[in-house]
Amino acid sequence: MELEAAIVALNTLTRSCKIKIYSDSEYLVKGMTLWIDGWASKNWIVRYGELRNSDLWRELYRLNRIHDITWIHVRGHSDNEFNNICDSLAREAIRNRNGIDIRIS
C-alpha cells in the first residue's frame, strides 16, 4: 500500500516539482534511495526472478525522474505527529469504506 500511496500522491502533481516524501515504510524509502537504479539496470530481474511489485516500482521510477524527490524515512507508530495523523486518516478512510474499525499495529 505504501508504494501505491506514493504513486497516487505523485500522480496528483500537474507539473514537475521539488518535494519531500515522508514514509514509515523502510522498504519504500530504501527502494527509492538505494536499490531502484540497480533494479532498473537489471530490467527488474532479481535472484529469484522478476522483482515483486515491479509494475509499481517501474511507475515510481518513472515518477522519480519527473520530480525532484527527497525520500525520508520516519519511524512508524511512534511520536511523529504527522505519521500519526496519516495513520489516523488511513484508519478513518478504511472505516468509511468498509463500515468497520481496524487496528494498525
CATH topology of the domain at 2-73: Nucleotidyltransferase, domain 5
Order of helices and strands: HEHEEHEH
> Numbering strands along the chain, what is their spatial order in the largest sheet?
1-4
CATH level-two architecture of the domain at 2-73:
2-Layer Sandwich
How would you characterize the overall build of this protein?
The two termini are about 15 Å apart. With about 100 residues, this protein is of the alpha+beta class. The strands form two sheets. It has a two-stranded parallel sheet. Strands 2-3 form a two-stranded antiparallel sheet. Helix 1 runs parallel beside helix 3 (about 55-65) and helix 2 packs across helix 3 (about 55-65). The protein has helices at about 1-10, 25-40, 55-65, 80-100, and strands at about 20-25, 45, 50, 70-75.
